[in-house]
Structure formats: structure tokens, C-alpha cells
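Entry:
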Amino acid sequence: WLKEHAWLAFEDLLPKPTDAELRAALGVAILEANRLGISRVQSAGLDDEMVPLLAEMLAADGLTLRFTLSSIVNPDADPQAVIDRVASWRNTLDPDFLDARVIKFFLDGVLESHTGYMPDGYADRPEEVGTCLWTVPAYRDAVRLAQQNGFQVWTHAIGTGAIAMALDAYQADGAHSKTLRPRVEHCEIPTAGDMARFAEIGAIASVQPAMIYPRDQWLGMEGIWEVRAGSDALSRAFPIRSILEAGGAVAFGTDWPIVDLNPLVGIRNAVLRQSRDHQPAGGWVPEQAISVQQAIHAYTLGAAHAGHCEAEEGSLAVGKRADFIVLSDNPLVIDPDGIADLVVLATFVGGCKVWDGAAAPTI
């Protein structure tokens, strides 16, 4: 395992791609998103070197995919400098396709490597509490600064302590949070009290349902969540239904390339909470399963709401952008187990067909 900062020792050894290689890679990735019926990517950081390339591509040939762009504020960075950089994007880019509105933070790591922040310890290592990358005052001040400058805040928070810390900071800047809809990214194990706070604060629970019981995504990792968090915490594992029933807003994403980019895989997983080979029987923590309609909403209008573009995107309505797809069957009618096998026959962005399954190029 290379945990968190241990990876930094290897980064400088990797060959740096040229701009031409990056443009080519972006082109392949955009085409793959079009193939899967994606009209907008909300990108959670590491966008800085891509922004000028995307702007060039938009000016030269246009883009077939919309982007919400962000930049990361690390604990040793100057938050104002990052805010100023993203503000320069916001002031110069075409917001229809390159919408620069996000400041991203990381509070902790992940449960699998004992780096998610769990102040009460891990079930299998009670003495370990994981990693908390920020102090409470510094993080709270940085969140307030970002929101005062009109930016939406996204915070990577997986462990119970990190989720609480994020929500505390959002609640402390209450008036801005109600307007700007700050997000908790991943939100794997909140307390019961924190599940109810999303609605109160106006925060968004941004969840990646392909990660639920990840037998299909990470070989041999099924069951690790319960080992780390403990059987007593299972009812709070990816608690999508509980947050929705408490009135909170939920948006779905994929966290690609960590897990599958295909939203249809995520819809199936949120409904069945089970791997493609039907494990575990009855679903993993089935009381947190949701309906197909709710899962589609979380990937469409829920995601648009989480990205401040619900007035223009996320549903089919007069006056909205003509971003829509044609599927090979109706996901609301078929057996949910078959949703991940549906084929996107066509993808339209702004009324233009950007993917034609009948004339599909080889990727």
C-alpha cells in the first residue's frame, strides 16, 4: 500500500505527458463519456493543467461534453491564491461548457487503508483513527473564504469524523451554505445525526454508488468495509435512503477512473446494492436501497442541482438545454438487474448528436 503522501515520492519518477498527449487523452475520454450518455462532467479537482487545453479545444473545434471545473486547496496552500486562479477561469471561460465554480478540499483518506478519519477508532484496529489533513480552524476559515468569494465547496470526507467536520464548517457559514450548496464527497459513514443535517444546512451528499459493495470494481475488496467500520456500523454504510428520507439532497457520480464511468452501473448498484453475480444475496445493507426513479434522479436533476445548473440541465423541459440520450430499453420498466446492460443509442448535447451508436467509432 502507498498511503496518501507516500505516493509523492514516486510522482516525480513518472514521465510527464506532452500537451499533445494530454489533448489526445482528453479526446478519448470525452468520446467515452459521450458513448455512455454523459452530457456534463463535474470534475472534483486536478483540473489546473487541463483548463487551458480544454479552452483551446472549445475554441478550435467545440466540445461535446460540458465540464464543471475545480481546483484543490491543500492545507499547505494559500487559499486566496487558489481562489484567485479559479476566479480567473470563471471570468474568461464559456460557462456553458467550462463552468469554473468549485474549490475542493480533502479532509481524510479511505477506510480500506485505515486513512479515513474515524475518531472512535477502527473496528479491526481500535487504536487507529485514520488521517485528518486539516485542523478545524484552518479548514473552517478556508471554507468561509471560498464561500464568501462565491465559490461552491466540495470536501472529500469518507470517515465519520471527516463528514462531521465538513458539515460543522458548512453550518458555521450558514447563510452562504444555504445559497451555495456545499458538498460532502463520498459520505460513506455519517452518524445518524449528521444524516439529518444535510437538509438543515442545505448541503449535498455526493455519493458514488458503484463503490457500494465493490466486488465488481476492486477484486477481493468486498467485505473490507465491514471489517474496517464494524458490523454495528452497517446500517450507516452509504446511507442514501436515510439521507433522502431526512429531506437531504443526494447527487450521484462515478469517481472515474477509480470506478466505472458508466452511470447505468451506478443506477443498478444503488437499487440492488449487489454485485453483477448477485452477491450478497438480498443486497448489501438492503434497507439503504432506493428506487430506480430515485437513482435516475440522483444522476440527472439531482446532479444538476448539485452543480447549480438545474435551471438549464438535468431534465427535459421547455427552455432547457437539449442534453438528452436515447436508451435501448426503458430502465423504469425492465428488471433492475439489466439496467447496467442497456446501450446508449444516441447522445445529444445542446441539440447536437455527439454519439451515434449505429455509427460508432472504435474507442
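Residues 212 and 273 are 6 Å apart (CA to CA).
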